[in-house]
Amino acid sequence: MAVPPILSVTPSRALVDEKFQVLVENLPPGCPVTLRSLHRSEDEDDWEAYGHYVSDHRGVVSVSEDLSFGGMYTGKEPMGLLWSMRPVPGSRKGLRLRKINVCTPMLVNISVHSGHEGFRDRTPLASALAERWYMAPGVKRIDINKQGVQGTLFIPPGPGPFPALLDMWGGGAGLLEYRSALLASRGYVSFSLDYLRSEHLSADVEFKYFETAFNIIRNHPQVIPDRVGILGSSLGSMVAFNLTAYSTIIKVSPRCIVCISSNHYHPPGTTLKAGFKILSKYVLFVGRINCPMLLVNGCDDQNWPTVETAEEVARLLREGGKEHLLSRLAYPGAGHLIEPPFSPHFRATKFIILNSKEKVILLWGGHTKPHSDAQEDSWRKILSFLQLHLYHSPSVKANL
Amino acid sequence: MDRKQCCVKLSVQPSRGLMDEKFIVLVQNALPGSQLTIRALHQCEDGHSWEAFGHYTADTTGTIDVSEDPSIRGTYSGVEQMGLLWSLRPIPGSKPGLRMRKKNIQTPMEVTISVYQGHQTEGFADLVPLSGVVVERWYMAPGVRRIPVTEGGLTATLFLPSGPGPFPGLLDLWGGGGQLVEYRAALLASHGFASMAIDYLTSKFTMETGKMVDNQYFETAYRVLQQHPQVCGSKIAMIGLSFGTSMTLKMAIYSEVIKLSAAVCISGSHVQPVEGSVEEIMGFFQKNAGKTRFNEKNEAIWRDLLLPIPTDPSLKADVGRLQCPLLLVVGEDDQNWPAQESALDIKEMMARAGNSHLLTVLSYPNAGHLIEPPYTPHARSSTFKTVEIQEKVMCLWGGQTVEHSRAQEDAWKKILFFLRENLYGDRNPTLFSHL
Prior knowledge:
Chain B: One of its GO terms (molecular function) is fatty acyl-CoA hydrolase activity. Chain B: Residues 20-151 form the Acyl-CoA thioester hydrolase/bile acid-CoA amino acid N-acetyltransferase domain. The complex is a heterodimer of chains A (400) and B (435). Chain A is an alpha/beta fold. Chain A is built from seven helices and 19 strands. Chain B is built from eight helices and 21 strands. In chain B, helix 5 links the parallel strand 14 (231-241) and strand 15. The radius of gyration of chain B is 23 Å and the shape is globular. At the A-B interface, strand 1, strand 2, strand 3, strand 8 and strand 9 of A face strand 1, strand 2, strand 8, strand 9 and strand 14 of B.
């Protein structure tokens, strides 16, 4: 029996935004092999990615150092085995990969197969299992149902108190916890707010709901009250933006805000009624924004006019003498769904429209490689922005 | 600078690691030049609390990097990336003679690492840290499978690496305390070896019959491993510590059944009645129990029981007949076994027989008897009960903490390299650079 090659993934247990090194040793020199990742989602769909490599004179393939010559990604891509994942051939259409249970890790099986063409027909030469976690050890997860507000709160380990974030996703999402879990793993009390899909809520959500949510965070014993920010994506970013613009009226004063893929026009089918009727007059309130803001969008966003929105916001702030508050990250080739790094890209997926309950395929946009680069780059910059404004003490706070 | 700092950030990377992996402890956003204490706290399975700490000064950017900055004083000093783990010791007021060993290796060792204002040395329980994180340290990598083995009357556990295999095999033996000790085998499986930890002194058979196992017990273990579909039957090695060394050498040299590709012997000796059974070898040591000495703390020193190294060949395993590579690991301050003297004699015997090209000796000044996988606390002495003596004794193992910890780290790397080279046949290995 011949002794097989050795495949290692380091670290074997990591947070989802951490890089890993995939190394194959003990191959024959100059040997063509395929590195493959395989993941079974919570919905029981199989996702995979693969790259074609050639071992060096020592019989080694290092995914961090070597180039892939084909497969789902090419070139030097240390994390290609994650971000280029797609449903395996024969899967249902329009799938999206999102973890609902954040208390367990995402399990990814990394394997090495001989040859390039037809590698799937051969048993792997070796494989290793990697765990990808949204929650660092010691992070606490707490269900919140308080004063009519619902959501999930994540608290970092340690005595605190900590800076905090109100975290809001967009339409069609239900309650997603993974970004808040990850933010808590990075040192922020993070509250993922449920404001659209709960059985107790409807689209008829008032400003008061968000104000209460913000105050619940602010008054939490482990939160530093004047270091609470808001982070929103898609519809959530619109909420974030408008909450801040109306802050003197509704007494929500975030220390900073991050808006990902935001829009200031009403997207069809996901209208928030009542309190948001006055949105059309929001232009006049841009002048009320007094905190640093980071706008992130993909230039190939096919879902919302986020490019136009970002430019409009920049113009309005400039006219109001508030341009120094704004930072913009605009990524060519990236689509609407800008998520934490190394997660797969979805150009179009199934979607259920909130009001009509109609099932459609929605085009989000973006092309995989630039979109994945945008996710990696933007996450690092978002964390750096949050660290500057929420962690650094006042005496060293710099202007944007 | 005494006023309480706000928002000091502490991070440990990786937050979930294997027991033998290094981590980076980073403090950020502290006041530049402030004095801080970084402390590790661990509650072991027995309920005892262990702590370690170092005193640091934040640099001009308000940062402390434990892998680059020196600890001025504490349970360790100097630049010690892993000092917070290997210098762990029972908190003041604990029972004497404790030793940290994990029994349940399917859960991680959890360590809380915190940073405190000022240079603190005691009373941590009454202080509120500025920041704290939890770190998990695992003996088992994801995907490693733990399989209890009872076939052929064995009391053993097999750990298989993840993947299809086949994998080289390893038989893992501990010493005179008996029990089924799994952690080293679990860790070795995490490095690609199908490892079987074997209880050969307190097995089910022995507990039920009162009799010690015979040579066939080890041969059965070898066969079970060899015949496993995911094990490469022609690539099996054996690793033994203390009394486990005696068994390893016995099997490597005299067994007709066991054909080893390599052997690792830690803190042991070749001195034993040749062709003696397990029971007879144990009895041989017991016969010399009168040579036990006690130090000023009344700790038992057993290293003289096998001294002087006999000249009578019937009292030494004939290492000249070894046909596989042998790695000997020796602590020069071993107070429990005469490992250093034995290693010298082994070297001589093999030189005379002409097979010394098979021998590698790793000898560590000021290291003691218990040379274990790295980054776990050093026990210079602890309460111990062998299967022969039914009462607990305070046993002196030896070693000075800093040098012993360095020895553990270095020896482990070299053991893995040795096993990799001999079992995977790697001519130009890329070392375990993440260790």
